[in-house]
Amino acid sequence: MSRMATAEYIGAKRRAYAGATPAKRRRLLDEVLETTGYSRKYANRLLTGSRKFRERKGRGKTYTDEARTVLTRIWQEAGCPCPPYLKAGMERWVAEYASEVAHIPPGIRGELLRMSASTMARMLAGKPRTKPGWSKANKRSGRHGNNEIKAKAPCASGETVMGCLVPPGDVQVDTFALGGGGAAEEFFWILDATDRKTQWTVLAPTWNRGRHATCAALAHIREQFPFAMLSIHADNGGEILNHHVAAWLGLQPRPPFLWRSRPRKSNDNAHVEEKNRSSGRQLFGEVRLDCPDLQGELEKLCDEWSAFRNFFCPCKMLISKEKREDGKGYRCRYDAPRTPFERLLEEGVLTAEQEAALRKQRDRLSGMELYRRGRKRLKKIRRRQEAYTKVKRQGAVGAPARPALPLRGTPSGTAVQRRSAHRPLAPPAPHHSSPSQERVASVQYLTNQKPPPYLKSVLSI
Question: Strands (DSSP E) along 25-117, which ranges?
Fold first, then answer.
């Protein structure tokens, strides 16, 4: 009940209480306790008149409606992050919003910086939370890889050693489809690589998960990682577990250690599986992209979105996991939210020149500008895809045939190399004179590879 209704109720019961017998008074007192929830002594004093019921105004609103409105706008411009992550970078988001979107009065700025994550959560409750391509995830899994590579690659869970205990460079990779929920014909896939310690994530598009396209995407990912890859953990998909990729990995200056998940154990690759949704599906959604001319635009979009996630989106890390005393579930503890960029600087694995270059890159970027640019580029990609789909449908029903595209005449899984405007052409995949030489090179790489020290106890299980 409201305070006014409670006051009227107490007044009515007080008049009845004054002329009641002791037995009836006990019943009235019990009724008041059940209705209001007051203590017995306090209710008795209210009914006898020795204490009056007073309206208490409370402290009132701490934050103004203008601060609530500006908070909602900043939250939307920053990509609708969770309140704890929004709070972790609030000072930066406020500065970017004031310089790029709209002026913030000093009083409102002070209110925004004083807000706690719980207050932000209450103010943002019920607000529509959308991403550029928000949709449910595609549950289609990949095909099985080469049996010979599977036999040679060590098999174990990539989560046995906690992420907080491994050095930077323990990378998990996976692909997710941009097939719109179907697997017919050819379309683009996104190769996702995530470092477990820093949670640095890089996305790269591949055409139909082909061998040459996958090697080109891996080469681009290797360039985007500011530190060396010590190991690569993949699921049992054939886009990574094949002779061509294994031979290419063996030619690297510091070949990473390649190992794989246990069959039918999706949590063995949990870090990258989670990033598939938060870094990939929330961007693309359930969309089908099968226009080969989108390669360059997809590369730019993936690079911009990867920079947005790595430099401006805080994330937590599991630091302890203990079984509860009652045996039901686990008690998990996480550290304070920090961006992958901040986590990487804390590790101290970069040289002074690398750290200075990374800081300079971060200072040139704006989180809100990257988010808006990504949304605009995604709309452009969808418009070109819709035009391509329309032409393809017209050609299927007898209308003028669609123009010949570079990739349509090539075997499934091969890609025509295009030089993007924002970066040089990726190094070509290694070419072997015969499949037998490629098989020998890949088997030799898998046979001679040695696991990093932090993986030796895992692979001996």
Answer: none
